[in-house]
Write a structure and sequence with these properties.
This protein is α+β, with helices and mostly antiparallel strands. Helices cover 40% and strands 18% of the residues. The mean pLDDT is 89.
Length: 324
Amino acid sequence: MKRPHEEGAALLTVLLMVAVIGIIAVGVLEDIRFGIRRASNAQIGAQARWFALGGEQLARNRIDQLLRRDQNKTLLEGGWNGRVVEFPIEDGVIQAKVSDATDCFNLNSVVEANAGEPFRRRELGVRQFASLLSLLGVGDGPQLAESLAQWADSNDVGPPGTEDDGYAEGGIPYRTAGGPLAEVSELRAVRGFTPELYARLRPYVCALPTTELSPVNVNTLPVEKAVVLSAITTGAVPLESARRVLNARPAQGWSDVEAFWGQQALAATPPIEGVRNQIKFRTRYFSLESRVGLAGGSTFMTALFEAGSVDRIRLVARRWTLEE
């Protein structure tokens, strides 16, 4: 015969077991709900990435159409440059923007490939970058341009503080790249380039996958970026003259170097050696910025294409984020 206190203990044990089982059940159900939600989010994210890749293919087709219009010139005809195009999809939308990626100063042009060492300082590229900085109102342009050149060259010889030894002395020590920039945001790691300066420079610079001097398509260069044209001439073409030239751009663009440099606004300032051939009339690099809105979420992708001949459009870079 059980005593009363034994019956109470048994009842308490049962209640505790029920409580524990209930807690475990709630935890299991919560894990199941979280797993379902996570799987659903992963499925939506994967679907959004596939939609973004579809947008990338549409961009390829658009670039191919531009090249087929005229294999010698790329024009602004049709208003394609920087225009956002939307494609509705079930429960969302794809937004894509194709732009000319040569309306900027190529930061990687401050060095050049060399047989003796992978990359060495390029004098003209450094001078052009210093000119851009000065035209944008930056007082210490030559020193900043030199800092970038020493960051990207392959040797360890340069002004004090611009090579590995200078960066190793900081609060968070690191080394110079010893090669071209992978993307523009890397510029923020170079000594002297503050967040404020980076924000001022960002609309006018790029990091193309080449160390060639900045290839500028004057048939698509916006008037508001005339400073790039002035900078590659190291200021020989004043900013106002560069603006006048772009404002007077023919409807069908320029077709050859002689027609461009022979304009009245440029006749008094013939290009220095190396600059003449930087002027292009056909775009080589195109950028894509896309956003996929799906089921209340957003997926971003940026891509860079290199255009060879018609039907030869090469994907150079793809990032699942917006450029900074």
